[in-house]
Amino acid sequence: MKFSTAIVAALLLIQTGPVFGQQIPASELPPPGTDTGLDGKYDPQNGIAQLIKDKTAESSASKIFEDERVLVFMPLPQEEVVAPGHVLVVPKRLGARNLLDLKPDEMRDLLVAVQKAAIAQKNGLGATGFRVQQNNGLSSSQTVYHAHFHVIPSFGGKAPGTPAPRRKLPEAEYNEIAAKLRAAWPK
Question: Is 176:120 a contact under the CB 8 Å cutoff?
């Protein structure tokens, strides 16, 4: 299957809001000495790499879909989420720091999983919309240096562009949302 350059071009044009003048909170900045640009060494201890390697019950609770190449998971319960049902879609191969490090077949597999995540959000949670966010480099607000896509559902009743407040989900709500997404995951 030939990967379409139109898809790559469309992804590069996706923007979730103005990035000029945005400040990254100090608590979200990578440690000093971390490669934060488009080039640099891959840190196999980054949070996503750790989750890929982690087989504990807590990490399993966050996993919505997994195969040999892709992992889809909800941010861990102790993390604040942009919206209930927000998931990250990541390549399981360690070493891809950003979109430029992905191979065409990895990009294809990730985009298929992004689409399936959106379908699961629509069918399982009743999402009326969604956005896909993908950041590359610190200057573009990337804070974890493992390539990943955010798929963030939205629900009717708010003005376009109105950001939802970030919040931690209670364990019961977190587990219920994860179960609904798993059940609605397209085959």
Answer: no
